[in-house]
Write a structure and sequence with these properties.
This protein has 206 residues and is α/β, with parallel strands linked by helices. The chain is built from seven helices and six strands. It has two domains: 2-45 and 98-205, Ribosomal Protein L4, Chain: A (3-Layer(aba) Sandwich); 47-96, no CATH class. Residues 60-71 have a biased composition (Basic residues).
């Protein structure tokens, strides 16, 4: 089993933890990770964009000028796509962009992303993460102690003080064990996880 260091909130190493090889040492599947990211982005699209085709634009029922004898190109309607104010050729219409991935594919993609973080030494385990009050300064201090900038912070339970302390930081996102996803794991430089959250991940995804 792979071992990673455990740090406290002051950034000092206080021990080590063994990680489950079935989750944190799998064969990395780049294709599945890519599919998972594409799926998440596609599923988040509203799909509400809409434009008018030439059949839907108002007006243009009369031929603008006669077919021959003017020296100009023949035109049938001022609502043709080449006219200003005309219709759009292949106008976008409301549609659903979402698609599904198999559960096994989703799980394999997540394990690949977690393994990649461990291999890159960007999977940082904290013995605990708790604040007595809501203060952004507290979260900044912890991340500075760990020498981490852009980070995904994973906690086992929804600790209100931790979540609110990180909310105003543009390069920090908090997530619970059940809401971590491949897109966030790849987007953020480091993954900061509490020791309790590591145990929960191993319990949920083993």
């Amino acid at each position: 089993m792979a071992k990673v260091a455990v740090y406290n909130m002051e950034g000092k190493q206080v021990g080590e933890v063994e990680l489950n090889d079935d989750i944190f040492a799998v064969e990395i599947n780049n294709n599945l990770m890519h599919m998972s990211v594409v799926q998440q982005l596609a599923n988040s699209r509203q799909g509400t964009q809409s434009a008018l085709t030439r059949a839907e634009v108002r007006g243009g029922g009369r031929k603008p000028w006669k077919q021959k004898g003017t020296g100009r190109a023949r035109q049938g309607s001022i609502r043709s796509p080449q006219w200003t104010g005309g219709g759009v050729v292949f106008a976008p219409k409301p549609r659903d962009y979402s698609f599904k991935l198999n559960k096994k594919e989703k799980r394999a993609a997540l394990k690949s992303a977690l393994t990649a973080k461990v291999n890159e030494a960007k999977f940082i385990v904290l013995d605990k993460l708790a604040f007595d009050e809501v203060k952004t300064k507290n979260m900044v201090a912890v991340l500075d102690n760990l020498k981490v900038g852009k980070a995904l912070v994973v906690i086992s339970d929804n600790d209100k003080n931790v979540v609110l302390s990180a909310r105003n930081l543009p390069n920090v996102k908090t997530a619970s064990v059940n809401t971590i996803n491949v897109c966030d794991l790849l987007k953020y430089d480091a993954c900061v996880v509490t020791q309790e959250a590591v145990a929960s991940i191993e319990e949920v995804y083993a």
